[in-house]
Structures are given as C-alpha cells and as structure tokens.
Design brief:
The structure is a single chain. The protein is of the alpha/beta class. The chain has 14 helices and 21 strands. It folds into two domains: 84 residues, Urease, subunit C, domain 1 (Roll), CATH 2.30.40; 320 residues, Metal-dependent hydrolases (TIM Barrel), CATH 3.20.20. The chain has an eight-stranded parallel beta sheet. The radius of gyration is 21 Å and the shape is globular. The structure holds manganese (II) ion. Manganese (II) ion (MN) binds next to loops.
Length: 457
C-alpha cells in the first residue's frame, strides 16, 4: 500500500521546504518537490505542515509512586501521546528497590506490551549500585537500552556522589548517556521539616522548600562529577536561570551537556501554588516546581539559541482525587502533571506562532534532537527516505481551545484548560497508518518496542 502526501510543507531541523512525501508500508520511500505515482493513494495536505512524529523522551506511565499509581497507564498514556502528535515515547523503567535492572526491564515490558498504541523505548533507572547492576548494564545495551536515569533526590531512588561517579564511569565505557534529576536532597529535607514544624502545610510550601538555587547546586555538582569522569550528561527537566548558568559554566570549560526542559516550565508559573483554590494549586505540584516569568523568558531564549536540546513532558498524571491525598500536607500531594497530549500544539502556539522560536527549532527539540540523543536517528525524528512514516499533519489555520473533556488522558484536567492554540494537529500517522484523525485516536495497541543505539547528537 502506497500513500502520497501531496502539496504540503515538510519541516526539518534546518527549516521548511515544499515537498511531496511518498510512503510505502511503514516507511517513507521518497521526499521530493513533486512526486507522481499512479499506484499511490493521494492524501491532499496542501496548506499543511508535515512534521516528523514527535518523540517524548520523558514520560511516566503506570508508575507506582507516593502510595498510588499514575492515572495513565501505557494504553491511555500512549493514546494521549498520539493525540498530541507524539509517535514515540521513552518511558522510565524503574526496578523495585533491591531488584535488578533485568527485573525492572521485564516489569516495564510487561506494562507496555500489548497495550501501548505508539512506539516506545525505555530509559533504565539506576537507583542502586553493586557488581550485579554493573554487569547488567551490558545486558541493557544488548536489549536496546542505551540511556539511563539517576536521581539526586527522592529517598527511594537517590544516589550519592560516589555512586553517581562510579555509574557514570561504567556508562562512559559503554558510550551510554544518562539523564539526571538535579535537586539538593538534604537541604530540601531540612526546609520541608522546618515548614512542617511551622505548620505551613499549604501548597505554597512546595515551591518554597525547593528553591531554584538548590536545583542549580545539584546541576553544578553533577556537572563537576561528570567533569571528573569526562562524560556528557543530560540535565532533565531544567527549570530556571540559575541552573542554566551552571550549564553555561560547564560548557565554557569544554564539557558537553545536554539540556531538557518541559512545557510547564516554559508556560506555567509558580504563583499557581499560592492560589486560594487548593485543588488548582495542587494540580500544579511537580518537582522541580514551576518557576517565575523571568525564568520562562530565559528558557525560551535558550531554546532559540539552541542551548536547550529537547522539550519533553515529564508526563506523570494524577486525578484530582489522587491530588486530594495531600490536602493538609503538601508533601503528600502526588507530584506530576499531565502533558503528553498538549506539548506539540503548545510549542507551536506559544513558540513558533509568537516567533519565540522557529519551526526548525521546534522540530529539533521535539523530534530530531531526541532521536539523535537517544539513538533512534534517522529511523525516527526526520521525514526522509528510509525513515519510519511517522508524520504529524499540522494545520496552522485551525485554532482551537484546549479542553480536558476532549482529552483521552485520564487525569481529568489539563493545566492548559482554555488555552487557545494557534493551529492544530489534523492527523497523526504512525508507521504509515492513520493513528489520529481530527482529534480522534484510531490507533490500536500495536506500538512497537524500538531498540536504540548510541547517542549521536
Ligand atoms: Mn520525571
């Protein structure tokens, strides 16, 4: 079965060009100014932008955390992803404490297989370090897992500096890449205890106990550890100017540093935590917390200059009912926001349409860079002959309002309720099949596991 996307504008990291796209089966077989093929079904995409399927390299589906489980599993999460133009997610596999990486991988495969509607891969979480785990790093590569995650905070998962050093050293030997959650755990614990003993149990204490400089401190420390190992690292969900300055310092001394941010840090403000409406405030709880408008401006400028490589979502959704667990104790609010369903339209609307970033930059941070950084390029992340036919058909004229009731994610709310988009996702094609048409998800649970190779960004 051949399909010919005719009359559209193809977007890449370098910009746009008028081109037709010919697809056969799951693959793109030609991209050229004018293609005619009598055997192909023609899809008229005149006036539309064709973007490579978005990649979300930071999701948490079916995750047990804080005594509960995320509202979205791989079925609903991947349907939400597709609706938002995301054709591939990389979720964080996380072994239970004391279990091996192999057990963690088996657990996550079981969660995803036969349920996931988009393509998927896994980062492996390293939450402990011993000879068994060190040996299993090799097995992870054999299973197509080339990226890892470490935490400098959260008691259940955090690693000390020596362990981070040892783990990075092993990953360097294998050419692996590691994303790190950077926040200073000890001082946050102390500030949290102080807030609690002062009776400051409201949501506002969430951001007051996790200030920007404690994120910056952890970023700086991680980057010094990476300097000692001489290995590139990924700062995941970077939120603020102070942390970005530490990245700039490391780059000035010659280190390679990759930076990820998320739509919530570009668009939502910490003032939400001080809302009189408790549930409104609680719905915004995530870590690191939302920051200030000044931080947002700095992040947008860094995106424009190419200093931030990826925009992922950290999708970690909880229902209002689940958020209610923390009424009376801000530390018991499950942390995380839904985001996988809205990222593409938000970045186009708030970034491209307002000229904060170019279409090329949008394509880089949503598709091309994550594909390269996480070893899937050029199978994913680009519209060219030989690549998977993952295509987002974007209609720049079809403005609409984001409304939770239209969404397929299970949080039941969106932090972007009422946001008027510029344009909208008209269709999403996953490996040559129509997966979303005008907001309706058609795809079934036939997402493929994508084994990944080494970082080449
Ligand atoms: Mn996360």
């Amino acid at each position: 079965m051949k399909r010919l996307f005719k009359g559209g504008t193809v977007v890449s990291g370098r910009g746009t060009k008028r081109a037709d796209v010919l697809v056969e089966g799951e693959k793109i077989i030609a991209v050229a100014r004018c293609i005619n093929d009598a055997d192909a079904q023609v899809i008229d995409v005149s006036g539309m932008l064709l973007m490579p399927g978005f990649i979300d390299a930071h999701t948490h589906f079916d995750l047990d955390v804080a005594g509960t489980t995320t509202a979205d599993d791989f079925a609903s999460g991947s349907m939400a992803a597709l609706r938002g133009g995301t054709t591939t997610v990389i979720d964080f596999a996380c072994p239970n404490k004391g279990e091996t990486l192999q057990q963690g991988l088996a657990l996550w495969r079981q969660k995803a297989e036969g349920k996931c509607c988009c393509d998927y891969g896994f980062h492996m979480t390293i939450d402990d370090w011993n000879d068994t785990i060190e040996r299993q790093i090799d097995e992870m590569y054999a299973a197509g897992i080339s990226s890892f995650k470490m935490y400098m905070t959260y008691p259940a998962m955090m690693l000390d500096d020596e362990t981070i050093y040892r783990a990075l050293k092993k990953l360097k030997e294998k050419g692996g890449i590691c994303g790190v959650h950077c926040e200073n755990s000890g001082v946050i614990n102390a500030l949290t205890a102080e807030a609690k003993s002062a009776g400051a149990m409201g949501v506002g204490s969430h951001y007051r106990t996790r200030p920007d400089y404690l994120e910056a401190e952890a970023v700086a420390r991680l980057l010094r550890i990476a300097q000692a190992v001489d290995v590139p690292v990924v700062i995941v969900h970077l939120t603020c100017t102070a942390a970005l300055r530490e990245v700039e310092n490391a780059r000035r001394r010659g280190q390679k540093v990759y930076v990820e941010t998320c739509p919530q840090y570009l668009l939502l403000e910490q003032s939400a935590y001080d809302s009189d409406d408790w549930i409104h405030a609680a719905r915004h709880v995530c870590a690191p917390p939302l920051r200030t408008p000044s931080d947002q401006r700095v992040l947008w400028a860094a995106l424009r200059r190419g200093e931030i490589q990826t925009v992922s979502t950290d999708h970690c959704s909880f229902t209002t009912e689940q958020k209610e667990r923390g009424r009376g104790d801000f530390t018991a609010i499950p942390g995380g926001l839904p985001g996988v369903e809205t990222r593409g339209e938000l970045l186009y609307s708030a970034g491209v349409a307002t000229r904060r970033i170019s279409l090329g930059t949008m394509c880089k941070v949503l598709s091309e860079n994550p594909a390269k950084l996480y070893g899937m390029y050029p199978r994913k992340g680009t519209i060219r002959a030989g690549s998977d036919a993952d295509i987002v058909v974007y209609d720049p004229q079809a403005d609409h309002m984001l409304r939770a009731e239209e969404m397929v994610g299970r949080a039941g709310y969106t932090p972007y309720e009422g946001f008027i988009t510029r344009g909208s996702i008209a269709q999403v094609w996953l490996r040559g099949e129509l997966a979303v048409d005008d907001g309706t998800v058609l795809a079934h649970a036939n997402g493929k596991y994508i084994p990944r190779g080494k970082c080449n960004l």
